[in-house]
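Page 37, continued from 36.
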């Protein structure tokens, strides 16, 4: 087993499934043994913790329930994670809003738009702010936000989603410039269509989003990417091999688009 990251203490928000959980598995395969998994759904969260411990029984894994849209809940959860782990070396903010699917703007209820923006964009910002105090104190840290290629490519049906994703990416880039003086790096991972995640499964269930994603899959000549593919990038950005990289938004999308 590789032991590239044996001392890393990783906090993974959205760690109960998808990119968040696969990132935990990847880091564990590289030697990380101290985790705090965070999610809103307590049942899924505990199941993810148990699964990770089954694969890596020598790991220490906390399961912390929180609400990514509630500043007080986020701060309390991050402080608890820092206390239990002793520090936060890596924060992975993988927040999704599966309630909402891609849709043309004229078909989007106007009353849904504020919640769509808040549910997608605010969580990574709150998490980063809460973790920043701990990382500044130790003069080191890596913050990795999960957005999507909708931040970079104008796509019909992703008008509001694209706005939210662009907000995450620009937030992360600006944070990178602010935090570098304290030895803290900040980068984004921006996947496109993914296989085998709850959000993708729901989007492919019916309607406009199904047509959109099926068309995108046809462009992925290198293969539709998976959550595991994104976890490879996350692990790289979390680790020492990327210690000079900050303010970047990296895509692994199988060739759906290029930037």
């Amino acid at each position: 087993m590789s032991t590239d990251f044996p001392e890393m203490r990783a906090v993974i928000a959205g760690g109960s499934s998808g990119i968040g959980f696969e990132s935990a598995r990847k880091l564990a395969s590289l030697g990380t043994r101290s985790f705090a998994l965070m999610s809103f759904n307590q049942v899924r969260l505990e199941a993810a913790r148990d699964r990770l411990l089954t694969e890596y029984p020598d790991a220490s894994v906390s399961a912390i329930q929180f609400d990514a849209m509630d500043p007080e809940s986020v701060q309390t959860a991050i402080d608890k994670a820092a206390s239990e782990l002793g520090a936060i070396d890596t924060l992975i903010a993988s927040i999704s809003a599966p309630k909402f699917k891609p849709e043309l703007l004229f078909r989007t209820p106007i009353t849904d738009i504020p919640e769509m923006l808040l549910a997608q964009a605010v969580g990574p910002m709150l998490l980063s702010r809460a973790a920043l105090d701990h990382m500044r104190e130790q003069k080191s840290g890596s913050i990795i936000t999960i957005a999507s290629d909708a931040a970079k490519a104008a796509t019909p049906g992703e008008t509001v989603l694209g706005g939210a994703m662009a907000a995450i990416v620009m937030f992360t880039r600006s944070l990178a410039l602010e935090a570098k003086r304290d030895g803290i790096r900040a980068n984004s991972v921006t996947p496109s269509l993914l296989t085998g995640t709850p959000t993708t499964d729901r989007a492919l269930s019916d309607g406009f989003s199904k047509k959109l994603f099926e068309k995108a899959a046809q462009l992925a000549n290198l293969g539709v990417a998976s959550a595991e593919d994104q976890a490879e990038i996350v692990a790289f950005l979390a680790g020492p091999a990327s210690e000079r990289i900050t303010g970047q938004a990296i895509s692994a999308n199988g060739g759906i688009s290029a930037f």
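The chain has a mean pLDDT of 89. Flag for discussion at group meeting. The first strand starts at residue 9 and ends at 13.
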